[in-house]
Write a structure and sequence with these properties.
Blueprint: H1 3-8, E1 17-19, E2 22-24, H2 27-42, H3 50-60, H4 65-70, H5 74-94, H6 99-115, H7 119-139, H8 153-167, H9 171-176, H10 179-188, H11 192-202, H12 205-223
Antiparallel strand pairs: 1-2
Length: 227
């Protein structure tokens, strides 16, 4: 929500990839851009093929926002929602020229709480997730990874979905009951990149450390009114 970031991306959402004057807001576009840089750097032509890109798009079609919020205890979700609204109001006062854009974010925060009361919306989000997981489960009948026997950008897009489910305490309900995905999940967790990017913060006791650190930061800032 800081004005320097907000001026660049008024949605105030991640990811944002900035390379010089080149700014990308879309996850898939970012991955493909970095891939092109890597390919040029090492001098080969192993770009993601069309099937990989189609799977990336299919995975990204599932919006985890409402599903995630639904599975967070109300008292925690409402506390954070209220804190975010205070942050937006504070930033609005600091940057009057961005008041209109900040006001849109404020309205979005209130609308999100209302949408969570919409049972159909939440049901559709859950159904979309189940459909995605079932498709991956079927695909893994014949391959080690989503597109063949080598890890691709399709897997890099899908692994955070599984990590999110585990973080929400939903592993048994959505992962363990699908044997192929359960095996796949065990396999990708052994990758050095997973351990560095996700496992470092959310595996085992590290999850509690990350959440406690976040909880303390929010409460201290709220107590001192440092939004």
């Amino acid at each position: 929500m800081d004005s320097s970031f907000f001026r660049m991306n008024t949605s105030a959402k991640l990811p944002v990839f900035k390379n010089g004057s080149h700014i990308i807001f879309d996850t898939i576009e970012t991955i493909l851009y970095i891939e092109r840089i890597a390919v040029v750097s090492v001098g080969n032509d192993s770009f993601s093929n069309q099937e990989v890109i189609e799977w990336m798009q299919k995975i990204q079609q599932w919006n985890p926002k409402y599903f995630t919020l639904l599975h967070i205890p109300d008292k925690h979700r409402l506390y954070v929602s209220k804190f975010i609204r205070k942050v937006v109001i504070a930033r609005m006062a600091e940057s009057p020229d961005l008041a209109s854009a900040y006001h849109s974010k404020l309205r979005e925060a209130y609308e999100t709480e209302e949408k969570l009361k919409n049972a159909d919306l939440v049901k559709r989000s859950t159904e979309s997730l189940v459909q995605l997981l079932d498709e991956v489960e079927t695909k893994l009948n014949d391959t080690t990874y989503i597109v063949g026997d080598e890890f691709t950008m399709a897997d890099a897009t899908f692994v955070p979905v599984l990590a999110r489910l585990v973080l929400l305490g939903l592993e048994d309900e959505y992962i363990s009951c699908r044997p192929n995905i359960a095996d796949y999940w065990g396999l990708v967790q052994q990758r050095p990149a997973y351990k560095k990017v996700i496992g470092k913060y959310f595996n085992g006791w590290r999850k509690k450390k990350t959440l406690i650190k976040t909880w303390c930061s929010l409460h201290i800032r709220n107590l001192l009114k440092r939004y």
